[in-house]
Amino acid sequence: MKKIYKKLTPILLFSILFGSSLLAQNSGKTEWFDPNRPATTYCNPINIGYNYTTFNHNRIPESRRSSADPVIITYKGEYYLFATNQAGFFWSKDMSDWNFVYGSFQRQPGDDDQCAPAAWVVNDTLFYVGSTWKRDHPIWKTADPKSGRWTRHVDKAMLPTWDPAIFQDDDKKVYMYYGSSGKLPLVGVEVDYNTWLPKGNQADYAELYKATEVEDIQKVYGQVKEVAILDPSAHGWERFGPNNDMEPAPWGNFIEGAWMTKHNGKYYMQYGAPATEFKGYANGVHVGDNPLGPFTYQKHNPMSYKPGGFVIGAGHGNTFADNYGNYWNTGTCKISIKDRFERRIDMFPAGFDKDDVMYSITAYGDFPIVLPTSERDQTKGASSGWMLLSYKKPVTVSSSEECMEVETHRMDNGGKKVYEKFCYGPENLTDENIQTYWSAKTSNPGEWLQMDLGRQMEINALQINYADHKATQYNKAMDIYYQYKIYMSDDAQNWTLVVDKSKNDKDAPHDYVELTKSIKARYIKMENIHNASGLFAISDFRVFGNGLTAKPKAVASFKVDRNKTDSRNAMISWKKQADAIGYNIYYGITPDKLYNSIMVYGDNSYDFRGLDKGTKYYFTIEPFNENGIGTKNKIIEVK
């Protein structure tokens, strides 16, 4: 490695490392990093400026960021991302660099802005509506979304739609789908473009327009049709609970997040289940020949599923085609510590195979993924091939917060709030657990972390996942950003400045940095310069590239034991390997459709409760480490 910093006196070294601009360039450009160069990859969670919740949101006083329920659509050749309570939305030219546009519809300081919004291009105009159980809400539209200004297409849309979706068919007819319930189905109806009222005799909707209870609002009236409902007694993944294990479900098994995709003349009715706070939150799909059905449960389900890894959860999103015709599926991933609705957004390669089976590939879905530049086959995903180098690597830090008892608001304990002891030590920086984090004692410039990879490795990218520890920000502010520098070394004494974000002014809480060229190093050091809110705290400091030694050997003793009493469940086991850091389990309905995967770190078994009764499955497994991916095992048939 090129040496920039030699051995210096402590005072001079501190001056250079923690504040000197002698070697830093105003642009932030270094030999390995250029902030103005478009990325070729991205990494989940999507790196947008997630809004902080309003004060005392859900009666929880802690400040925290959150968003969920994403919709990404293309409009005039660019990508627009709408999501829950963001005081606006985001746009991008490349699906990587997202720019915020302020566009709030909040009426009172404690109100939600837009929950689970719907967006769709109708007659070349961008339409937008949020969730509501109330009547008399507007439908907005704009032909210039970057302005942040919207006009009202109608002042009073009478459908009280929660988790809405808008769809315009090729014949220009417009449909609304909606619903979020542990008991009732998702429903849909054709609406009149001019009035946005449901088609048919309005007298048939009189009871709907008067209804005040959710159970009455989401029923079928007039020309409203049932489009999807859960069947957890047959579909294991649709069961409520942290591991699909709460039967009976205390509030029901939730279906929500409607979305419609048309492909090859078929209509794919997408939905999220069973609940946003669980690792098994996934997107399923029913298929029909008409926009209002009837629909049939697709045999390959869930169609987007990510219960393991750093990013956990893939439910309640949408499916869209990029500018090259490739499909992508968006979803909601969980943190669920400060609030069970503490969430982030993810996005995975998706598509329709030769048999028109809808799929989404989440394998290595929280490692760098290659952005599209042309139409391509995505049945194997779009992984960059850069492996995780940072797992369980030792880290030293400038300071650490003390352990404390914290009231958590996750629902993993039978729906009850519990107090848990949380520690904020450096081991949390490399544990691949988005629910834990390290925190320094201050947010001062000069707080730092230093990682030892154990040997020289080739580094291509980094992801810095900030945590909201003792944050004081609520709702949107336009002066939220992070600044830092990253140095690398072979001996922890002579350091090279690799990434300079000392002039950054963009909010990037899951900052993904793709290097312009790889660099070989053993040690990595990050120095805080400016923190957005609260203490300098990071969930995981993730490093990607290649370890430059041997890939792991194939897995031995791989078994899938399907439960004879309840065929929705199976215990998967294998022999743990010293040369592997993790494993990907693949499964599907035929040997050539192993689209779903489960990532497991540091274990030799997985209690899988996401199978469908009456369906034969096929399984395989592969190990991975810093150097690459091992050979897949022979595929196992599981009846």
TrEMBL record:
Pfam families: F5_F8_type_C, fn3, Glyco_hydro_43. One of its GO terms (biological process) is xylan catabolic process. Residues 554-639 form the Fibronectin type-III domain. The keyword Signal applies. InterPro entries: FA58C, FN3_dom, FN3_sf, Galactose-bd-like_sf, Glyco_hydro_43, Glyco_hydro_beta-prop_sf, Glycosyl_Hydrlase_43_Enz, Ig-like_fold. Residues 429-546 form the F5/8 type C domain. Gene3D superfamilies: Galactose-binding domain-like (2.60.120.260), Glycosyl hydrolase domain, family 43 (2.115.10.20), Immunoglobulins (2.60.40.10). Keywords: Carbohydrate metabolism, Glycosidase, Hydrolase, Polysaccharide degradation, Signal, Xylan degradation. This is Discoidin domain-containing protein. It comes from Flavobacterium potami.
